[in-house]
Amino acid sequence: MLNKMSVGTKVAAGFAMLLLILAISSGVSYYSVSQMASISATAERTSKNAFLAAQMEDALDRRISGIRGYLLTGKDKELASYQKAKQDFSDSAEELRPQVKSDEGKQLLAKVDQASQEYAAATDHVAELRTANHTQEATDLYFSPAVAQLRSALHDAIAEQTSHEEKKHAGRRRSCRR
Predict the structure, then answer these.
(1) pLDDT bucket at 50, cuts 50 / 70 / 90
(2) Distances (CA, A) of 139 to 69, 72, 74, 101, 102
(3) Span between the terminal Cα atoms of the chain, in Å
(4) Could you tell me the maximum CA-CA distance found in the chain, to the nearest angstrom?
(5) What SS3 class is residue 126?
(6) Coil/strand/helix, residue 100
């Protein structure tokens, strides 16, 4: 069949094959790049969520440290540290809230909010007692089983939220490798 074709037809057919290969290659490349952009955006979002959940854990640790420091020293610097950590916690939770899309994630974040409000009410009362120079009463309240249970419940809720975000992030990384 090739013997019957003219040289011009053979050259044109060769160029047509090259153009076809180029078009197919371009299409595959475009699809791959668009998929990578989508995967990258998803990974960035889940990484940010995991980071925000970890920031909440850090803020809780600073809240605990701040209120204990204030109980011990009565210095305004420690009270300010507690208040700042409490605000940082709230800011991280508010930044995380619109990012959470799953029902499970929303339920876990609501659980964190509830536990945080209960713990904040108790520790704010402790701070008020200490400010009024009722140091022993403030100390007894802070180290009471009820406040310890609130603190533990908040730690557990944050750990669940963090674990949930980290699992989502790990799942996204695995799907990117496929």
Answers:
(1) confident
(2) 11, 9, 12, 40, 40
(3) 44
(4) 107
(5) helix
(6) coil
Q: Residues with Cβ < 8 Å from 162, sequence gap 6 or more?
A: 50, 53, 54, 56, 57
User: What's the one-letter identity of residue 116?
Assistant: S
Q: Going by C-beta distance under 8 Å and a sequence separation of 6 or more, which residues neighbour residue 160?
A: 108, 111
Domain ranges (residues) in the chain = 45-177
Distances (CA, A) of 51 to 11, 58, 95, 166: 59, 10, 11, 9
Indicate the class that CATH gives domain 45-177.
mainly alpha
Residue with tokens 């800011």: 91
Q: Which two tokens stand for residue 41?
A: 């955006």
Residue 118, both tokens: 């209960």
Identify the CA nearest to 84 among candidates 67, 103, 109, 108. Answer: 67
Q: Give the pLDDT of residue 99.
A: 85
Tally of residues, the chain: 178
**Buried b / exposed e along 100-115 (16+ C-beta atoms within 10 A):** beeeebeebbebbeeb
Does the pTM exceed 0.85?
no
